[in-house]
Amino acid sequence: MDWNKIVWIWIYFFIGAGGAIGTIKLTESYIGKLFHILERTIKIRSSELKNLYDENAALESNINKLKEKRSSLESRNHELEEILFERIKQEGAI
């Protein structure tokens, strides 16, 4: 083997190694960008979920208040029905 072939082998080796290292660095860069995008997306989605959770809690609170109001109105309605029944009974209609 002459020196010319040995030199070319070493040149190809270093070019190949440099290309491999460059490819690895480029891949790391793209992976880093992908993770950054995923991290941002997760933060946005978690923020949206927190807002929905807070809104849901407020709506559940309103629903509970309305249920209490409904129960109060139903009991008041029942009382008024009893009063009406008693008045009708006193007038002798029943």
Q: Look at the helices and sheets and give the structural class.
A: mainly alpha
**Major beta sheet summary:** none
Q: What is the percent of helical residues?
A: over 70%
H/E element order: H
> How big is the Rg?
40 Å
Principal-axes shape call: rod-shaped
- Helix tally equals 1
Q: How much of the sequence is in beta strands?
A: under 5%
Number of separate strands: 0
> pLDDT below 50 for ≥5 consecutive residues: which ranges?
none
Separation of the first and last Cα atoms: 126 Å
Q: Mean of the pLDDT scores?
A: 87
Polypeptide structure, described:
With 94 residues, the chain is mainly alpha-helical. Helices cover 94% and strands 0% of the residues. It has one helix spanning 3-90. The mean pLDDT is 87.
What layout of secondary structure does this protein have?
Blueprint lengths: L2 H88 L4
Brief digest:
The chain has 94 residues and is mainly α. The chain has 1 helix and no strands.
Distinctive features:
94 residues, mainly alpha
